[in-house]
Amino acid sequence: MRHIGYILLYTVLAFVAVFQIFPIIWLVLFSLKSNQEIFAGNPFALPTDPKWDNYLKVFEGGVGTYFWNSVWITVVATGLTILIASMATYTITRMHWKFSSLVLGIIMIGLMIPIHSALIPLYNMFLNVHLIDNPLSIIITYTTYNLPITVMILLGFYTTIPREIEEAAIIDGSSIHRMFFQIILPLSAPILSTTVIINMIYNWNEFVFVNTFISSDAFKTLTVGIQNFIGQYMTDWGAIGATLVISVLPIIIAFLFFSEKIMEGITASAVKG
Amino acid sequence: MNKIMSNKWIIFLYTFPALFLIGVLIVVPLILSGYFGLMDWDGISAMEFIGLENYMVALQDAKFWESAFHSFLLALFSALSLILYLIVALILASKIKGANLLRKIYLIPMLLSSVAIAQLWIKVYNPTNGMLNSVLIFFGVENPPNWLADPDIALYAIFIPIIWQYAGFYILIYYAALKNIPQSLIEAAKIDGASPVQIAMKMKIPLIMNVIKVTIVLSVVGSLKYFDLIYVMTGGGPNGASEVMASYMYKLAFESYDFGYGSAIGFLLLIITLIVTIIIRKLTATKEEIQY
């Protein structure tokens, strides 16, 4: 009886796993097939003769530019967010001043609001300062909109740093700047790495800001770029599949290496809200 | 020590960048959205003040209410699907071998961009060559549905990839909360002869109620903001059958160039989101925190 119960439970879990993973496996399979094979054959069959040409075609079509834009914009915006969020979290949690909880409240507004409500005014602001179709608009928007979640993840860690560390540093004659950059930041490396990876995933996957603020192919990131591509390859399933695989592969690889960090960051960013 | 740690100049220097960016790029635009909503404006020529006209029009705009209804429907589905995620998490947290690997597998779709998910599911739903209909045809279904092109089905068809995307996220959160319950409590209940179902219903679920409440807020508020996936998958179609508030607002502004009216809809979206958040927080508020 107990045995049958467990078999049932494992069946449920296995069914969920199959549901979660199968569309992705199917995607990888058809990214290596020709249309003929996709349309005529068994959808879950391995490709008889893997068509790596699909990937080659997509790179020759210019997906590399989008990929590179995604990389550098993600890295720059993540770096800025982490630095600015760390500084703000430091003053809010460690320093003594009257308005710290008010400032924290203002920063946290960003967690509740729908970004679409701010979209038209943002577009208009960037238009007025000639930043439309300029990657700078994307970078500062990403930096800003990821601040609330980053501060939230950092908050818990910063409050647990022992006072004695700061006292010792001050007795040694350290300035606040030195204390922050040479003691606090290195000390918070584990939690910083969590925020880095969460920020990178968010930035890598962002769509609506790029779609609204950027019109030149030269500045588009992968999320918007693949939209173009897919329009272009309307009926070429293999090429579409290859484009999608290229766009999700970096995240999957990151997950293989940093799954614990990613899960920690996702849990922290959700539950404390 | 105290003097150094309350140095006003340092506090200003360290806090200003965050406050400035959030003020200029989040707070001000939200206020401006309400203000632009008072204008007749195509985004290019000068604005013309028309008072509350846009808001009055919105209240009578059947398309707006339809999109709001779709958003609420998605919010309802999302909240209900939490029950499924909770059941899976309860199973997963009950001494299952490979639980750690399974929750990682469950989480993978959550990491992909909504655009990639949308494009992948467009292919899954492809009426003739998609994964879903290939399987249905294999099992002898004669005329499998034309999922995304059928106005009666499109919204429900979109909800499946939404479940696919978020299942791992909620399972992960519930799993972490369940693993935090002290094992001694469960053991004591077992010795008293409680069945696994009783333990789940009477102990585990009440003990993680605070986390469940947070997830209800997250899923409902998140649903009201859905955009990327729907915009890419159907563009709100066919014929508005899957239009939601955010996609309606986006189309008004950036496809019809009705920036004034779009801003008004955007502002209403903000107000509705805030009201719903407050209502759900009130409904799920507890007088006393559960201690264990």
Automatic annotation (TrEMBL), chain A:
Q: Carries keyword Transmembrane?
A: yes
Give the GO biological process terms.
transmembrane transport
Task: Spell out where the chain crosses the membrane.
Answer: 7-29, 66-90, 102-123, 135-158, 179-202, 237-258
Domain ABC transmembrane type-1: start-end pairs: 67-258
> Please, which domain of life does this record's source organism belong to?
Bacteria
Q: Where is the signal peptide?
A: none
The protein's UniProt keywords, in alphabetical order, are: Cell membrane, Membrane, Transmembrane, Transmembrane helix, Transport
Compartments, record wording: Cell membrane
- The answer, when asked if Transport is one of the entry's keywords, is yes
| Membrane topology, record value | Multi-pass membrane protein
- Cellular-component GO terms for this entry: plasma membrane
Q: What is its main location?
A: membrane
What family classification does the UniProt entry report for this protein?
Answer: Belongs to the binding-protein-dependent transport system permease family.
What name does UniProt use for this protein?
Raffinose/stachyose/melibiose transport system permease protein
- Which species? Salinibacillus kushneri
From TrEMBL, chain B:
Q: How does it sit in the membrane?
A: Multi-pass membrane protein
**Residue intervals passing through the bilayer:** 12-38, 72-93, 105-122, 153-177, 207-227, 259-280
- Enumerate the Gene Ontology biological process terms: transmembrane transport
**Domain (ABC transmembrane type-1): residue spans on this chain:** 68-280
| Pfam family, any one | BPD_transp_1
Q: What is its main location?
A: membrane
Q: InterPro entries from the xrefs?
A: ABC_transporter_permease (IPR051393), MetI-like (IPR000515), MetI-like_sf (IPR035906)
Q: Could you tell me the keywords of this UniProt record?
A: Cell membrane, Membrane, Transmembrane, Transmembrane helix, Transport
What the entry lists under SUPFAM superfamilies is as follows: MetI-like
What's in the GO CC field? Answer: plasma membrane
Query: What does the UniProt entry say about where the protein is found?
Result: Cell membrane
- Name the family the entry cites: Belongs to the binding-protein-dependent transport system permease family.
Protein name as it appears in the record: Raffinose/stachyose/melibiose transport system permease protein
